[in-house]
Design brief:
Elements (H helix, E strand, L loop, with lengths): L2 E8 L4 E10 L7 E2 L13 H12 L5 H10 L7 H21 L1 H11 L3 E7 L5 E7 L5 E7 L4 H15 L4 E4 L3 H10 L4 E4 L1 H26 L2 H15 L4 H14 L15 H20 L10 H13 L5 H25 L2
Parallel strand pairs: 4-7, 7-8
Antiparallel strand pairs: 1-2, 2-3, 4-5, 5-6
Organism: mine drainage metagenome
Protein name: MULE transposase, conserved domain protein
């Protein structure tokens, strides 16, 4: 024995101590025999750690720092971010390899179930885009790949590969892209092709609102009302007053600034955040004006006066304020039409 080295193998749930032994030949002292591998060839020992990192990265959507801390709580050392990135890449590579090797099994499963409804979509705005082909009747992702653009020439090879592996789909749902439509009709001429309701509604909503929405949003942001409301909210929180006027002013400021949450994460055109902010501020403006019109005097720096000053930026007559109110009214009229279309499409 030349020397021994003790180290720990990193597992998904614990550390396994191992000992490496370096040997040498007495007849040939210059020749050192390296130790046997710590794990057998093609061993699945580290797969548990790869699977755990991949699960947290791609299914729980955690950052690598969060994954590192979670594994550390389980008894593992603090792994470098680069190592976690490598394990996540390995997980994606192994998952893709298993998926491609199992296409025959997947094809049989889909045939036994009656086929599959193809959902085709490309994501990305700059550089390479990602093409995702999934099954509309289940959460299965059939194929995912990068491609340069949504053109017939770029998409046809992927669709032919899918046709050879899984057979033709029962139907296909696409966005309003001309390239996707041409590729589908070239590979499957008799296929039932449907338009995605979400993409259709987004296109129609953009046509309805784009004339007034950008201008209205710009005027609301330039008014400075949001900036003053945030400053007022922060000051009232720091002061921590308990009188009724302070609590009511803080509640009104919170209500206006949180109006964008009513959209539950939806963006334009499915939720018009500036219009919601404007109408909520208008309701509070009327309530504040009513309170201040009652008998009694309030100092210039009183909370109600501060709130009134912030909202004056939106509702006090000045150049552009009339157009802002008119644009909001027009957006609300078109919103009624948009909601009717949503109900018809049951979206």
């Amino acid at each position: 024995v030349l020397k021994t080295v003790t180290r720990d193998l990193v597992g998904a749930d614990r550390l396994v101590p191992v000992q490496e032994v370096f040997r040498y030949c007495s007849r040939h002292p210059s020749r050192v025999l390296s130790p046997d591998p710590l794990t057998p060839w093609k061993s699945n020992y580290t797969f548990a750690l790869i699977a755990e990192v991949g699960r947290q990265r791609f299914f729980v959507h955690r950052q690598f720092s969060e994954i590192r801390d979670e594994l550390h709580k389980g008894g593992l050392p603090l792994l470098p971010t680069r190592s976690l990135q490598h394990l996540a890449d390995r997980y994606a590579l192994l998952t893709t390899a298993v998926h491609l090797e199992s296409l025959q099994t997947l094809a049989q499963f889909l045939r036994d179930r009656g086929g599959y409804a193809l959902l085709i979509d490309g994501t990305g705005k700059a550089g390479r885009m990602t093409l995702q082909l999934s099954d509309g009747w289940s959460p299965l992702v059939l194929l995912s790949a990068t491609f340069p653009k949504e053109s017939r020439e770029a998409l046809v090879p992927f669709l032919r590969f899918l046709d050879a592996a899984l057979g033709p789909p029962v139907s296909a749902t696409r966005d309003l892209s001309k390239g996707i439509d041409e590729a589908l009709r070239e590979v499957w001429p008799d296929l039932l092709i449907l338009s995605c309701h979400q993409h259709f509604l987004r296109a129609e909503g953009t046509k309805l609102f784009k004339r007034y929405f950008a201008r209205f949003r710009h005027v609301v942001e330039r008014s400075g009302a949001k900036k003053e409301l945030r400053a007022l909210r922060q000051r009232l929180r720091q002061e921590g007053g308990t009188c009724r006027e302070v609590r009511q002013t803080l509640a009104w400021a919170e209500e206006i600034l949180s109006s964008s949450r009513a959209g539950k994460g939806q963006g334009f055109p499915f939720f018009l955040a500036p219009a919601e902010f404007y109408r909520c501020a208008e309701r509070v403006w009327k309530a504040v004006e009513e309170v201040l019109s009652r008998p009694g005097r309030r100092a210039r720096g009183a909370p109600y006066r501060k709130l009134q000053k912030a909202l004056k930026r939106l509702f006090e007559p000045r150049p552009g304020s009339q157009r802002m109110a008119e644009d909001c009214r027009r957006l609300e009229e078109r919103w009624v039409w948009f909601e009717r279309l949503r109900r018809v499409l049951r979206f």
